[in-house]
Amino acid sequence: MHAYLSEFVTYLIKFIFLLAVSVGGVFFGKKMAVGKMQKKAQQKAKNEQKPNQE
């Protein structure tokens, strides 16, 4: 019985760790995507300002 409990705890710890890694990856990916979109928007704004100044 102790061996089954030990296996269960081991799998539970692995599951929680993998779940945390995947959730962290999703949030990190969203943050990177938002940053990339903001950079593109800033670059587009700069490109639109240049013809108006000339």
Please write the string of helix (H) and strand (E) elements.
H
Distance between the termini: 81 Å
Uncertain regions spanning at least 5 consecutive residues: none
Question: What's the total helix number?
Answer: 1
Radius of gyration: 23 Å
The geometry reads as rod-shaped
Summing up helix and strand content along with how strands pair, one would put the structural category as: mainly alpha
Instruction: Summarize model confidence as the mean pLDDT.
Output: 84
Q: Largest beta sheet, briefly?
A: none
The helix content, as a percent range, equals over 70%
Question: What percentage of amino acids are in beta strands?
Answer: under 5%
Per DSSP E runs of 2 or more residues, the count of β-strands stands at 0
Model description:
The structure is a single chain. The protein is an all-alpha fold and 54 residues long. Helices cover 96% and strands 0% of the residues. It contains one helix and no strands. It has one helix at 2-53. The N and C termini lie far apart (81 Å).
Brief account:
With 54 residues, the protein is mainly α.
In terms of topology, how is this protein built?
Elements: H1 2-53
Which labels suit this protein?
96% helix
